[in-house]
Amino acid sequence: MMTVLNLSFAACGFLGIYHLGAMDAFLRHGHKLLGSLGACAGASAGALVAAVMVTAPEKLEHCKDFTYRFADGVRQQRFGAVTPGYNFMLTLREGIEEILPTEAHSLATDRLYVSITHSESGTNHSVSTFTSREELIKVLLASCFVPVYAGLKPVELRGKKWIDGGFTDSLPILPVGRTITVSPFAGRQDVCPIHRGRFKTQLSLANMNIMERLVCESCSALSQARQQLHTCSRLQRTGWDQDIPGTLSAISVFSIQSFW
């Protein structure tokens, strides 16, 4: 019998389109995994994808469309997101409001864990309870707020000011169950690209090492806005048609044992 599985999506700016590609693959091929899914976690763009996974997976295509429109809107600004008069956070809020269902906060409570950072102390906080849809939206906005890039005023929530959760915990690991980590950056995450000639992507499940190959164009998540649309398209394809099918095959063949 499988242990409880969780998904965690890394902070990554506009490279979050990779997460949407991964989410697409989980929904298409990961019925066994989703049947054991306990919760989703994330920071910044990863938190947005985690929220959609928990509350509105049927809105996946809508999310892809919004991401392309959002990236294109930033690209068209003379100085990107920091162009005077451009409201990055308002555009993001409008996209979130389009996608989240009315009962999103109820669906997300105890199933969605969002990483945010206290603006004054610099300490991390994981939010998993939401009293209203508006509070959920504010938590997601806080997790995405990069000072200067996204604006000058941190997001106010529960009487305190918060900024991007990626500063203090960019890839949350939940305390109960096995957390499968997803990131568009090369490294030791369960699902991520490889760096040419140096790193190999490995997924360790039930003491089995499953090697997968991902080809990911290296780029900055917050800069090079003029290249973002081309990069987004490739990343979205990479996120779902390279690594995930092998990952899910491993999960379906091998029982995931408790790691306690």
From TrEMBL:
The active site is at 44 (nucleophile), 164 (proton acceptor). A motif (GXSXG) lies at residues 42-46. The keyword Hydrolase applies. A motif (DGA/G) lies at residues 164-166. Residues 7-177 form the PNPLA domain. One of its GO terms (molecular function) is triacylglycerol lipase activity. This is Patatin-like phospholipase domain-containing protein 4 isoform X1.
